[in-house]
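PROTEIN DATA CARD
Card holder: Nudix hydrolase domain-containing protein
Chain length: 389
Origin: Mikania micrantha
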Amino acid sequence: MSVATYTIAGNGVRNFYSSSSSYIRRHNFPIIIPNIRSLSFPFNNSYVTAAVSSSSSTTSVSDSIGNSSNFTWDDVFQVSQSRSDLDGFFQKISLCNRGSEKRSDFIPFVIEDQIVGYVHIGFADQLSKFKDVFTITKDNTYGSQSGHVTLQSALKTPESRTEALGNVVKCLGEEVFPGIRNELYPVTSSYGGSVYFSLERAAAPYFGIKAYGIHMSGYVEKDGEKYLWIGKRSETKATYPGMLDHLVAGGLPHGMSCAENVVKECEEEAGIPRPISSRAIPVGVVSYMDIDGYRFKRDVLFCYDLKLPESFIPHNQDGEVGSFKLLPVTLVGDVIRNTEFFKANCNLVIIDFLFRHGWPSSHLPLLCPFDKSPPPGHGYPSKMRVGGI
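Structure generated from the sequence above:
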Protein backbone atom coordinates (compact mmCIF):
# COMPACT_ATOMS: atom_id res chain seq x y z
CA MET A 1 0.00 0.00 0.00
CA SER A 2 1.24 3.50 -0.80
CA VAL A 3 0.63 6.48 1.42
CA ALA A 4 0.18 9.97 0.07
CA THR A 5 1.20 13.09 1.96
CA TYR A 6 -0.63 16.37 1.51
CA THR A 7 0.13 19.84 2.81
CA ILE A 8 -1.84 23.09 2.79
CA ALA A 9 -0.15 26.36 3.66
CA GLY A 10 -2.10 29.03 5.54
CA ASN A 11 -2.52 32.08 3.31
CA GLY A 12 -4.45 34.64 5.33
CA VAL A 13 -7.90 33.73 4.01
CA ARG A 14 -10.50 35.88 5.76
CA ASN A 15 -13.54 34.46 7.50
CA PHE A 16 -16.06 35.63 10.04
CA TYR A 17 -13.75 34.76 12.95
CA SER A 18 -10.40 36.27 12.02
CA SER A 19 -8.22 37.60 9.24
CA SER A 20 -5.88 34.62 9.49
CA SER A 21 -7.21 31.13 8.83
CA SER A 22 -6.49 27.76 7.30
CA TYR A 23 -8.46 24.65 6.52
CA ILE A 24 -8.67 21.28 8.14
CA ARG A 25 -9.84 19.16 5.26
CA ARG A 26 -10.78 15.51 5.06
CA HIS A 27 -12.36 14.09 1.91
CA ASN A 28 -14.11 17.16 0.45
CA PHE A 29 -15.32 18.94 3.57
CA PRO A 30 -13.42 22.14 4.48
CA ILE A 31 -13.31 23.16 8.14
CA ILE A 32 -12.55 26.81 8.85
CA ILE A 33 -10.47 27.51 11.96
CA PRO A 34 -9.36 30.99 13.07
CA ASN A 35 -5.96 32.46 13.95
CA ILE A 36 -3.77 29.51 13.13
CA ARG A 37 -0.70 28.36 11.33
CA SER A 38 -0.95 25.18 9.31
CA LEU A 39 0.69 21.82 9.92
CA SER A 40 0.18 18.82 7.70
CA PHE A 41 -1.30 15.48 8.78
CA PRO A 42 -0.96 12.95 5.93
CA PHE A 43 -3.48 10.23 5.26
CA ASN A 44 -4.21 7.65 2.60
CA ASN A 45 -6.68 9.28 0.17
CA SER A 46 -7.61 11.94 2.70
CA TYR A 47 -5.84 14.44 4.86
CA VAL A 48 -6.13 16.82 7.71
CA THR A 49 -4.10 19.99 7.87
CA ALA A 50 -3.75 20.57 11.56
CA ALA A 51 -4.55 24.08 12.66
CA VAL A 52 -2.32 25.18 15.49
CA SER A 53 -2.87 28.34 17.48
CA SER A 54 0.27 30.44 17.16
CA SER A 55 -0.35 32.00 20.56
CA SER A 56 -0.98 28.78 22.50
CA SER A 57 1.10 28.40 25.64
CA THR A 58 2.49 24.92 26.16
CA THR A 59 4.91 25.58 28.99
CA SER A 60 2.88 23.92 31.72
CA VAL A 61 2.22 20.89 29.54
CA SER A 62 5.77 20.41 28.35
CA ASP A 63 7.14 20.74 31.87
CA SER A 64 5.19 17.70 32.97
CA ILE A 65 5.29 15.26 30.07
CA GLY A 66 8.47 13.49 31.14
CA ASN A 67 7.52 13.14 34.79
CA SER A 68 5.68 10.33 36.54
CA SER A 69 1.97 10.98 36.53
CA ASN A 70 -0.13 10.88 39.65
CA PHE A 71 -3.54 10.24 38.08
CA THR A 72 -5.48 6.98 38.24
CA TRP A 73 -8.02 5.29 35.98
CA ASP A 74 -10.70 6.73 38.28
CA ASP A 75 -9.44 10.21 37.36
CA VAL A 76 -9.69 9.28 33.69
CA PHE A 77 -13.29 8.09 34.00
CA GLN A 78 -14.23 11.28 35.83
CA VAL A 79 -13.10 13.55 32.99
CA SER A 80 -16.13 15.40 31.67
CA GLN A 81 -16.79 17.48 28.59
CA SER A 82 -15.88 20.78 30.20
CA ARG A 83 -15.32 22.45 26.84
CA SER A 84 -16.93 21.98 23.45
CA ASP A 85 -14.39 23.70 21.16
CA LEU A 86 -11.38 22.23 19.40
CA ASP A 87 -8.72 24.36 21.11
CA GLY A 88 -7.65 21.50 23.38
CA PHE A 89 -6.83 19.38 20.34
CA PHE A 90 -4.81 22.16 18.73
CA GLN A 91 -2.86 22.72 21.94
CA LYS A 92 -1.83 19.06 21.94
CA ILE A 93 -0.71 19.36 18.31
CA SER A 94 1.26 22.48 19.20
CA LEU A 95 2.91 20.62 22.09
CA CYS A 96 4.54 18.22 19.63
CA ASN A 97 5.66 21.01 17.31
CA ARG A 98 7.45 23.47 19.55
CA GLY A 99 10.48 25.60 18.82
CA SER A 100 10.26 26.32 15.09
CA GLU A 101 11.68 29.78 15.81
CA LYS A 102 14.87 28.07 17.09
CA ARG A 103 15.48 26.12 13.90
CA SER A 104 18.47 28.33 13.01
CA ASP A 105 20.26 27.15 16.18
CA PHE A 106 20.81 23.76 14.52
CA ILE A 107 23.34 22.84 11.85
CA PRO A 108 23.16 19.92 9.40
CA PHE A 109 24.60 16.53 10.33
CA VAL A 110 26.00 15.20 7.05
CA ILE A 111 27.07 11.69 6.02
CA GLU A 112 28.27 10.94 2.47
CA ASP A 113 27.00 14.33 1.28
CA GLN A 114 23.50 13.57 2.62
CA ILE A 115 21.84 15.46 5.48
CA VAL A 116 20.79 12.80 7.99
CA GLY A 117 20.06 15.05 10.96
CA TYR A 118 20.55 18.37 12.72
CA VAL A 119 22.74 19.22 15.71
CA HIS A 120 22.38 22.20 18.06
CA ILE A 121 25.33 24.59 17.84
CA GLY A 122 25.91 24.22 21.60
CA PHE A 123 25.87 20.44 21.38
CA ALA A 124 28.23 20.57 18.41
CA ASP A 125 30.75 22.28 20.70
CA GLN A 126 30.57 19.25 23.02
CA LEU A 127 30.98 16.86 20.08
CA SER A 128 34.06 18.74 18.86
CA LYS A 129 35.94 17.28 21.86
CA PHE A 130 35.70 13.86 20.20
CA LYS A 131 38.19 14.74 17.48
CA ASP A 132 38.63 11.16 16.32
CA VAL A 133 34.88 10.91 15.59
CA PHE A 134 33.49 14.30 14.51
CA THR A 135 34.50 17.10 12.18
CA ILE A 136 32.90 20.55 12.49
CA THR A 137 33.16 22.49 9.24
CA LYS A 138 32.48 26.23 9.22
CA ASP A 139 31.03 26.81 5.77
CA ASN A 140 27.58 27.12 4.20
CA THR A 141 27.83 24.14 1.86
CA TYR A 142 24.62 22.62 3.23
CA GLY A 143 22.60 25.80 3.66
CA SER A 144 23.66 26.82 7.16
CA GLN A 145 25.85 29.86 7.72
CA SER A 146 27.10 28.21 10.94
CA GLY A 147 28.55 25.20 9.14
CA HIS A 148 27.80 21.50 9.51
CA VAL A 149 28.82 18.36 11.42
CA THR A 150 30.15 15.22 9.81
CA LEU A 151 32.16 12.15 10.81
CA GLN A 152 35.88 11.66 10.37
CA SER A 153 36.76 10.30 6.92
CA ALA A 154 38.38 7.25 8.51
CA LEU A 155 34.90 6.06 9.57
CA LYS A 156 33.92 4.66 6.22
CA THR A 157 31.60 1.75 7.04
CA PRO A 158 28.25 1.59 8.87
CA GLU A 159 29.84 -0.76 11.42
CA SER A 160 32.75 1.56 12.25
CA ARG A 161 30.43 4.55 12.51
CA THR A 162 28.01 2.67 14.75
CA GLU A 163 30.85 1.65 17.06
CA ALA A 164 32.30 5.17 17.19
CA LEU A 165 28.94 6.82 17.93
CA GLY A 166 28.19 4.12 20.49
CA ASN A 167 31.39 4.96 22.34
CA VAL A 168 30.45 8.66 22.36
CA VAL A 169 27.03 7.81 23.82
CA LYS A 170 28.64 5.64 26.49
CA CYS A 171 31.13 8.38 27.34
CA LEU A 172 28.49 11.10 27.70
CA GLY A 173 26.07 8.71 29.37
CA GLU A 174 22.71 9.28 31.02
CA GLU A 175 23.66 12.79 32.10
CA VAL A 176 23.50 13.91 28.46
CA PHE A 177 21.24 11.19 27.00
CA PRO A 178 18.65 10.29 29.67
CA GLY A 179 16.72 7.06 29.17
CA ILE A 180 19.40 5.06 27.34
CA ARG A 181 17.73 1.83 26.16
CA ASN A 182 20.53 -0.01 24.35
CA GLU A 183 18.22 0.02 21.34
CA LEU A 184 19.65 1.09 18.00
CA TYR A 185 17.88 3.18 15.37
CA PRO A 186 19.02 3.03 11.74
CA VAL A 187 20.22 6.41 10.41
CA THR A 188 19.11 7.22 6.87
CA SER A 189 18.48 10.38 4.86
CA SER A 190 14.96 9.21 3.97
CA TYR A 191 12.59 6.32 4.67
CA GLY A 192 13.81 3.14 3.03
CA GLY A 193 17.16 4.71 2.10
CA SER A 194 20.66 3.44 2.71
CA VAL A 195 21.60 2.96 6.36
CA TYR A 196 24.73 4.98 7.14
CA PHE A 197 25.04 3.72 10.72
CA SER A 198 22.89 2.91 13.74
CA LEU A 199 22.45 5.11 16.81
CA GLU A 200 21.18 4.63 20.35
CA ARG A 201 17.48 5.52 20.42
CA ALA A 202 17.82 7.94 23.36
CA ALA A 203 20.51 9.89 21.48
CA ALA A 204 18.56 10.21 18.21
CA PRO A 205 16.88 13.57 19.08
CA TYR A 206 20.24 15.12 19.98
CA PHE A 207 21.47 14.39 16.48
CA GLY A 208 18.16 15.38 14.86
CA ILE A 209 17.80 11.92 13.33
CA LYS A 210 14.49 11.18 11.68
CA ALA A 211 12.96 8.31 13.66
CA TYR A 212 10.21 6.00 12.43
CA GLY A 213 7.66 4.07 14.42
CA ILE A 214 4.25 2.43 14.31
CA HIS A 215 1.15 3.35 16.34
CA MET A 216 -1.92 1.14 16.28
CA SER A 217 -5.38 2.12 17.43
CA GLY A 218 -7.19 -0.97 18.66
CA TYR A 219 -10.93 -0.42 18.76
CA VAL A 220 -14.17 -2.27 19.41
CA GLU A 221 -17.67 -1.58 18.12
CA LYS A 222 -20.56 -2.25 20.51
CA ASP A 223 -24.18 -1.26 19.97
CA GLY A 224 -23.21 1.16 17.21
CA GLU A 225 -20.59 2.92 19.36
CA LYS A 226 -16.79 2.81 19.09
CA TYR A 227 -14.46 2.14 22.00
CA LEU A 228 -10.65 2.38 22.12
CA TRP A 229 -8.37 0.14 24.12
CA ILE A 230 -6.00 2.45 26.01
CA GLY A 231 -2.90 1.43 27.95
CA LYS A 232 -1.43 3.07 31.05
CA ARG A 233 2.35 2.90 30.92
CA SER A 234 4.25 1.19 33.69
CA GLU A 235 5.36 3.47 36.51
CA THR A 236 8.87 2.05 36.08
CA LYS A 237 9.20 3.15 32.42
CA ALA A 238 12.19 5.43 31.86
CA THR A 239 10.10 7.75 29.70
CA TYR A 240 6.55 9.01 30.33
CA PRO A 241 5.93 6.63 33.26
CA GLY A 242 2.28 6.15 34.21
CA MET A 243 0.89 8.11 31.26
CA LEU A 244 -1.80 6.94 28.85
CA ASP A 245 -0.69 5.33 25.62
CA HIS A 246 -1.90 3.47 22.58
CA LEU A 247 -2.81 -0.17 22.76
CA VAL A 248 0.28 -0.87 20.62
CA ALA A 249 3.18 1.38 19.56
CA GLY A 250 6.90 1.04 19.02
CA GLY A 251 9.95 2.12 17.08
CA LEU A 252 10.64 0.60 13.66
CA PRO A 253 13.71 -1.69 13.80
CA HIS A 254 16.15 -1.81 10.94
CA GLY A 255 15.24 -4.39 8.31
CA MET A 256 11.67 -4.95 9.52
CA SER A 257 8.57 -3.90 7.61
CA CYS A 258 5.88 -1.79 9.28
CA ALA A 259 3.33 -4.60 8.98
CA GLU A 260 5.64 -7.16 10.60
CA ASN A 261 6.54 -4.69 13.33
CA VAL A 262 2.84 -4.24 14.11
CA VAL A 263 2.48 -8.00 14.55
CA LYS A 264 5.58 -8.14 16.78
CA GLU A 265 4.50 -5.20 18.97
CA CYS A 266 0.95 -6.53 19.20
CA GLU A 267 2.24 -9.75 20.73
CA GLU A 268 4.73 -8.06 23.08
CA GLU A 269 2.59 -5.20 24.31
CA ALA A 270 -0.96 -6.54 24.26
CA GLY A 271 -0.82 -10.31 23.73
CA ILE A 272 -2.66 -10.05 20.41
CA PRO A 273 -2.09 -13.23 18.37
CA ARG A 274 -0.94 -13.04 14.76
CA PRO A 275 -4.26 -14.22 13.24
CA ILE A 276 -5.86 -11.08 14.71
CA SER A 277 -2.97 -8.59 14.51
CA SER A 278 -2.31 -9.40 10.84
CA ARG A 279 -5.70 -7.82 10.07
CA ALA A 280 -4.46 -4.35 11.15
CA ILE A 281 -5.09 -1.79 8.41
CA PRO A 282 -2.52 0.90 7.46
CA VAL A 283 -4.37 4.23 7.48
CA GLY A 284 -1.70 6.91 7.02
CA VAL A 285 1.27 8.74 8.46
CA VAL A 286 1.59 11.43 11.12
CA SER A 287 4.82 13.40 11.42
CA TYR A 288 5.98 16.17 13.69
CA MET A 289 9.09 18.23 14.47
CA ASP A 290 9.74 19.36 18.02
CA ILE A 291 12.67 21.43 19.31
CA ASP A 292 13.38 21.40 23.03
CA GLY A 293 16.82 22.57 24.13
CA TYR A 294 19.42 20.47 22.30
CA ARG A 295 16.77 17.96 21.20
CA PHE A 296 15.31 18.09 17.69
CA LYS A 297 12.72 15.33 17.34
CA ARG A 298 11.76 14.53 13.75
CA ASP A 299 9.39 11.62 14.14
CA VAL A 300 7.33 9.80 11.53
CA LEU A 301 4.56 7.54 12.83
CA PHE A 302 2.97 4.94 10.55
CA CYS A 303 -0.62 4.61 11.78
CA TYR A 304 -2.73 1.45 11.83
CA ASP A 305 -6.30 0.62 12.86
CA LEU A 306 -7.31 -2.80 14.18
CA LYS A 307 -10.92 -3.70 14.86
CA LEU A 308 -10.88 -6.19 17.72
CA PRO A 309 -13.47 -8.77 18.79
CA GLU A 310 -15.62 -7.69 21.74
CA SER A 311 -14.40 -10.73 23.63
CA PHE A 312 -10.69 -9.88 23.32
CA ILE A 313 -8.88 -8.67 26.46
CA PRO A 314 -5.30 -7.38 26.03
CA HIS A 315 -2.51 -8.65 28.30
CA ASN A 316 0.89 -6.99 28.38
CA GLN A 317 3.82 -9.37 27.85
CA ASP A 318 6.91 -7.15 28.22
CA GLY A 319 6.20 -5.30 31.46
CA GLU A 320 5.99 -1.88 29.80
CA VAL A 321 2.24 -1.42 30.33
CA GLY A 322 0.66 -1.37 33.77
CA SER A 323 -2.95 -1.92 32.71
CA PHE A 324 -5.50 -1.51 29.92
CA LYS A 325 -9.01 -0.06 29.81
CA LEU A 326 -11.64 0.00 27.07
CA LEU A 327 -12.89 3.59 26.81
CA PRO A 328 -15.65 5.16 24.70
CA VAL A 329 -14.16 7.35 21.98
CA THR A 330 -16.19 10.26 23.35
CA LEU A 331 -14.35 9.94 26.66
CA VAL A 332 -10.98 9.54 24.93
CA GLY A 333 -11.61 12.75 23.00
CA ASP A 334 -12.49 14.62 26.18
CA VAL A 335 -9.41 13.28 27.97
CA ILE A 336 -7.17 14.53 25.15
CA ARG A 337 -8.93 17.87 24.96
CA ASN A 338 -9.08 18.59 28.70
CA THR A 339 -6.10 16.85 30.35
CA GLU A 340 -2.41 16.06 29.96
CA PHE A 341 -2.85 12.35 30.69
CA PHE A 342 -1.69 11.01 27.30
CA LYS A 343 1.89 10.63 26.13
CA ALA A 344 2.31 13.62 23.85
CA ASN A 345 2.61 12.01 20.41
CA CYS A 346 -0.28 9.62 21.11
CA ASN A 347 -2.55 12.66 21.09
CA LEU A 348 -1.73 13.27 17.41
CA VAL A 349 -2.50 9.73 16.30
CA ILE A 350 -5.74 9.54 18.29
CA ILE A 351 -6.89 12.94 16.98
CA ASP A 352 -6.28 11.47 13.51
CA PHE A 353 -8.36 8.41 14.48
CA LEU A 354 -11.20 10.53 15.88
CA PHE A 355 -11.55 12.66 12.76
CA ARG A 356 -11.24 9.70 10.40
CA HIS A 357 -14.00 7.91 12.30
CA GLY A 358 -16.35 10.90 12.28
CA TRP A 359 -15.88 12.25 15.80
CA PRO A 360 -16.55 14.81 17.16
CA SER A 361 -19.72 14.80 15.06
CA SER A 362 -21.17 17.64 17.13
CA HIS A 363 -18.74 20.03 15.44
CA LEU A 364 -19.32 18.94 11.88
CA PRO A 365 -22.49 20.96 11.13
CA LEU A 366 -20.75 24.16 12.28
CA LEU A 367 -17.28 23.55 10.89
CA CYS A 368 -18.01 21.68 7.66
CA PRO A 369 -19.94 23.94 5.24
CA PHE A 370 -20.64 21.16 2.73
CA ASP A 371 -22.19 23.56 0.24
CA LYS A 372 -19.11 25.77 0.02
CA SER A 373 -15.82 25.45 -1.80
CA PRO A 374 -12.48 26.83 -0.60
CA PRO A 375 -11.94 30.49 -1.47
CA PRO A 376 -10.08 31.30 -4.70
CA GLY A 377 -6.35 30.90 -4.30
CA HIS A 378 -6.57 28.37 -1.48
CA GLY A 379 -5.53 25.48 -3.67
CA TYR A 380 -4.77 21.91 -2.74
CA PRO A 381 -1.31 20.51 -3.33
CA SER A 382 -0.17 17.53 -5.31
CA LYS A 383 0.57 14.16 -3.76
CA MET A 384 4.01 13.11 -2.58
CA ARG A 385 4.78 9.42 -2.28
CA VAL A 386 6.01 8.41 1.13
CA GLY A 387 6.54 4.73 0.52
CA GLY A 388 4.96 1.33 0.69
CA ILE A 389 3.70 -0.16 3.94
